[in-house]
Design brief:
The longest helix has 18 residues. Helices cover about 40% and strands about 20% of the residues. Helix 5 crosses helix 8. A 5-stranded mixed sheet has the order 8-7-6-9-10, sandwiched between helices. Strands 3-4-5 form a 3-stranded antiparallel sheet, with no helix packed on it. The protein is of the alpha+beta class. The two termini are about 20 Å apart. The chain folds into 2 domains: about 130 residues, no CATH class; about 130 residues, Nucleotidyltransferase, domain 5. This is IS1595 family transposase. InterPro entries: IS1016-like_transposase, Tnp_ISXO2-like, Transposase_Zn_ribbon.
Length: about 290
């Protein structure tokens, strides 16, 4: 969906409201929850409300959503969601401010609310089959401005991706065995093949019912075929996601605080999981309202 197609589809707030009705209630024709009679609900003039043609019972499509009582036009909200769906490196608050013509405070709030929507609309289940797992350190600096793994102030994140399937990311407090064990057990189905790097903390996976294999990055090993298991172990897919995420933070957002890291992770994870379905990505966000 190009920008021209977007504005042809959503030229005004009424078009956005009809789309929300279609996604949330299946359209404007329905059985009235008050009188039980089927009919085509009609929109009330100058209000974001539809009324039953028989008993005049009212339905507000934006009720109990982030759009409830918003003073920002629905077209602006929809366009912001469109930008989040079509970008690769994320959308900053300043960019939203310029694109929507609103204050920075409003733009920042819209961006954070959309990131929450993306987290709600994303994959929520167990990974299975062949899963890659890898942790990363985001942000922070060593004293004197030097960068490095494990630097103070960094946020530790962990990613797990099913081969040919969804990606799951989590913020973790450390890379100790109990922490990694809990994250894998909560997100990966028992009996799955799990590929990791040589971090000692992953040694627990065999005893937890997983088929575990690792690659030794210190020895410049990026993939390894295990003849006994019949699989190629690698963490390249997850590491590629971390590279994109870190590059996007540096170029688009400059830095992200640990307090809000989860929302930004939800944004990039959602986009990675649905990048082949751009229009569906937009509708998933609307459905998550």
């Amino acid at each position: 969906m190009s920008v021209r197609e977007f504005f042809a589809r959503f030229p005004n707030d009424d078009a956005c409201l009809v789309h929300i009705m279609n996604v949330r209630f299946g359209g404007t024709t329905m059985d009235c929850p008050a009188c039980g009679v089927e009919g085509e609900f009609h929109k009330l003039r100058d209000r974001r409300v539809y009324a039953c043609p028989h008993c005049l019972h009212q339905i507000a499509p934006t009720a109990n959503t982030i759009l409830h009582d918003t003073r920002t036009p629905l077209v602006s909200w929809f366009y912001a969601m469109y930008l989040f769906a079509t970008t690769r490196h994320g959308v900053s608050g300043k960019e939203l401010q310029r694109q929507l013509g609103v204050t920075y405070k409003t733009a920042y709030r819209i961006g954070m609310q959309i990131r929450t929507l993306m987290g709600k609309a994303d994959f929520d289940g167990l990974l299975s089959g062949h899963v890659q797992a890898d942790e990363a350190y985001v942000g922070g600096r060593r004293s004197g401005g030097k960068r490095g793994r494990g630097a103070p102030g960094k946020t530790i994140v962990m990613g797990m991706q099913e081969e040919g399937g969804p990606l799951v990311t989590r913020i973790i407090p450390d890379v100790k065995k109990p922490t990694l064990r809990a994250v894998v057990n909560e997100n990966v189905e028992k009996g799955s093949v799990v590929s990791t790097d040589e971090l000692m903390s992953y040694g627990l996976l065999e005893g937890d019912g997983y088929v575990h294999g690792s690659v030794k990055h210190a020895a410049k090993e990026w993939s390894r075929y295990d003849y006994r298991q019949g699989v190629t172990h690698s963490t390249n897919a997850v590491e590629g996601f971390w590279r994109l995420f870190k590059a996007s933070v540096r170029s688009t957002h400059v830095q992200i605080s640990s307090k809000h890291m989860a929302r930004y992770l939800d944004e990039f994870t959602f986009r990675a999981n649905h990048r082949e379905r751009m229009n569906a990505m937009f509708d998933l966000m609307v459905a998550a309202l």
